Amino acid sequence: MSIKERWSLSYVSKPPLFLNRGRGYQVEIRGVRLINNLLISVAKGGVPADLILANARVVNVFSGEIEPGNVAICGDRIAGVGDYHQAREVLDLGGKYVVPGLINGHTHLESSMLSVGEYARAVVPRGTLAIVTDLHEIANVCGLKGMGYVLNWARRLPLELFLMAPSCVPATNLETSGASLGPEDIRKVLRWRGCIGLGEVMNFPGVISGDEGVLTKIRLAGGRVIDGHAPGVSGKSLNAYIAAGILSDHESVSLEEAREKLRQGMYVMIREGSSEKNLDALLPLVTDKTYKRCLWVVDDRSSVDLLRDGDIDAVVRKAIKRGLDPVRAIQMATINAAEYFRLTKLGAIAPGYLANLIVTEDLSSLPADMVFYRGSLVARQGKLLFPLYKPAGDELTHTVNIKPFDIEALSFFASGETEPVIEVIPDQIVTKKRVVTVKVRDGVIMLDTERDILKLTVVERHRASGNIGLGLVTGFGLKRGALASSIAHDSHNIVAVGTSDEDIFTAVKEIERLQGGLVVAAGGRVLSSLALPIAGLLSDEPLEVVVAKLERLDELARELGTNLPAPFATLSFLALPVIPELRLTDLGLVDVAEFRLIKRG
Description:
Elements: E1 26-29, E2 32-35, H1 37-44, E3 49-60, E4 65-74, E5 77-82, E6 87-92, E7 97-100, E8 102-104, H2 116-123, E9 128-133, H3 136-154, E10 160-165, H4 183-190, E11 195-201, H5 204-209, H6 212-220, E12 225-228, H7 235-243, E13 248-249, H8 255-263, E14 267-271, H9 279-282, E15 294-297, H10 303-308, H11 312-321, H12 326-331, H13 335-340, E16 357-360, E17 370-373, E18 376-380, E19 383-384, E20 418-424, E21 431-437, E22 439-441, E23 444-446, E24 454-459, E25 468-474, E26 482-485, E27 494-498, H14 501-514, E28 517-522, E29 525-531, H15 543-559, H16 567-572, E30 582-585, E31 588-591, E32 596-600
Parallel strand pairs: 3-6, 3-7, 8-9, 9-10, 10-11, 11-12, 13-14, 14-15, 20-25
Antiparallel strand pairs: 1-2, 3-4, 4-5, 7-16, 16-17, 17-18, 18-19, 20-21, 22-23, 24-25, 24-27, 26-27, 26-28, 28-29, 30-31, 31-32
């Protein structure tokens, strides 16, 4: 069978890493690991390999060197690098580089708005062959059933998906979610195949104050990797957070913040997503002394960015462009992530490691000429060589459940001459708290496009509670119309921003009709939309269709006045009450520093 055919075309789930069976695999039977003698024989040179990548320049992430040699592959493993010539198949690379498959150490694939197969189609041809995710977006809507849905389809794809049990579903008690995962649920998920630890502990005030519910979840994950989420936490509060057993953080936005966390023993995940861009600020943290404690992540990356720019490969390229040594940048996308997450057979090109590889002619721009997954060629020059399977039926659909309301419910009554306003910061998900004088007529706050003071609305969509949060926001720049989305981290109610109640109402009702999606409305009518029928988060359409529709929505948003590069991504984070300083949920306005509602909806 040729390397183009090795990836199974049968509709079966791939086995987990420790249960691989067959030629060259490691087999675990009742806890006793037996090393297949064939892999050893190929490594010794006594038996031909299945595949040799000849005349390669191998990026050695252990030594930081680039070494010439041939890569011998047996089954799904690397037998060795060196003077190997006998194989069933030999590919002469003519001096091209061989790089370990990239690892995205913290991402929410749901933020791509793509089905699981289309997500893989976006990232695998670019060399992302492993992701670490807690699936808390879909869990907040559909609970364990939603997580199982993603895992079921991921097992059919050439992509390693490592699960972190979602620690905060919901993130706080200051919002209404579609599901809640308590300690017993976490105990169950930690036993699932492929679960390697506890996902980002977003309730940092709960950790610091000793909340027993949060600490119980941390204790359940004892001995495993526990990811953090501590925006702006410092000093003794940071010490308390780390002392609970939390190992990493991806929320640093300044060099000083990241440096303090690193000095206190945290791994620093340097994030470069669609609306959270921290690489430029944090890159000076990476030195010969510190780089082993740093790794790249994207957190949230839109389908547009995945298609046009890439995934972790785009972060590596940007870091190199900013002056980082290419091998160092690759180390932070491979072996650093693998060692932090204790993925002992990933992240390097060495004997016994999984043959997850990228072949490229240029380390600086990292174009993936060929991509190998477990020894099989799965993509070449951006073209997929593996089948996609679409989920059948209407699983996880019809999740938008809104209590009927009329437009008068959107009237925002003033509490005085001044009101708190959420200030958007471009390219960041942190916000600022401002207090401004507002215009009032008959007790109702009047929106002010000249000063860019717009209405923000969050409509509860899981339990038909009738909750509607109302607030003010500045930084969108809309002159007319409204934007609305059923992606609203983390509970994913419907969030909308607009210049008039009529347009906000129109956009929200369209999302209800679509059963999830993104909408632009103006003049009381819908201008364009993108349906997200799967949990109100994911599309069932191909990557290119989703991107075209999303780009059209962004174009219309710009025509309505916004200058934000990713207005819907920015909008989606304004309901997340674990990111400073001010947020809006379906229950009202949240002061994150005080961790309380300061104005109810």
